[in-house]
Write a structure and sequence with these properties.
The protein has helices spanning about 1-15, 35-45, 65-75, 95-105, 125-130, 165-170, 195-205; strands at about 50-55, 80-85, 110-115, 135-140, 145-150, 180-185, 210-215, 225, 235, 245-250, 255-260. By secondary structure, the chain is α/β, with parallel strands linked by helices.
Length: about 260
């Protein structure tokens, strides 16, 4: 009996890879602070006068399509980084996020993960924070400030805190070395999953600042560029990975262009 228990203990210990619960938050191999690490890699790259990046979203359960996407991205010259704009997972499980990271780690350039509404399911927010970092963060690349944030209002019962308008306002104030801004979050402001009390403050913040080049989102499973609020500021929505397309975004001298790439 003792020998059996000893062997069972060794089996459970094996490499620290056993999952004890579907709601497990991490194992011994779970990566951490991926956004911070990948942004550091981005800063180490040699950049030119063009910012070129991929905008995609909703990777959940689309593992085969994601592998094909990685192959396509790697075939495009001059891409600086990739944004997965939320719903990295479907059920907020750490194994889902690890699978996606395993796939996207094969991209030749750094990738950034944004928090989506599905990523908040179960223990997902804690897992996201461990693997990717804080849900509200910024980085500056070639004089463009990318303001990334949680806009999943419905998951917080529309309590007026999400998105954090005060934080967004602060991050979009004039800053030395910053010529333009790009806002990035999963939920677009003009659908009913966004807190209706915060829609106008957000719209005013984005469309009232001529240095904001675009507001970028995903969630609604289509590739489309909207111009809401009678403005000229584009709200760019990326399709789900399962539909095998993504946006290639370019910013040159404060001018933004976008193109749908199929794979």
């Amino acid at each position: 009996m003792k020998t059996y228990l000893y062997l069972l203990a060794l089996l459970l210990w094996g490499c620290g890879q056993v999952e004890y619960s579907p709601n497990q938050k991490f194992d011994s191999n779970t990566p951490s602070d991926l956004n911070k690490k990948n942004i550091s890699k981005l800063y180490s790259q040699t950049n030119d006068d063009t910012v070129r990046f991929v905008l995609t979203g909703d990777t959940q359960r689309a593992y085969s399509a994601c592998k094909s996407m990685v192959t396509k991205i790697n075939s495009i010259e001059g891409v600086d980084f990739v944004v997965i704009n939320g719903d990295i997972s479907d059920f907020g499980l750490y194994q889902e996020m690890e699978w996606i990271n395993d796939i996207y780690s094969d991209i030749k350039v750094p990738y950034i993960g944004i928090l989506g509404n599905h990523d908040i399911s179960a223990n997902g927010k804690d897992i996201y924070r461990r693997m990717y970092g804080e849900e509200n963060f910024c980085f500056v690349y070639d004089s463009v400030k990318f303001v990334c944030y949680d806009s999943n209002s419905r998951e917080y019962n529309f309590d007026g805190s999400i998105p954090n308008i005060n934080w967004l306002s602060t991050e979009m104030k004039p800053q030395e070395g910053v010529k333009n801004y790009v806002a990035i979050s999963h939920i677009p402001s003009f659908i009913n999953d966004f807190d209706p009390k915060l829609e106008k403050p957000y719209a005013d913040l984005i469309t009232g600042n001529k240095k904001v080049l675009a507001s970028m989102h995903a969630h609604i499973n289509q590739s489309h560029v909207y111009y809401p609020y009678n403005s000229t500021t584009p709200f760019i929505v990326a399709n789900t990975a399962a539909k095998k397309e993504f946006y290639l975004i370019e910013i040159v001298n404060g001018k933004l262009t976008h193109k749908v790439i199929n794979f």
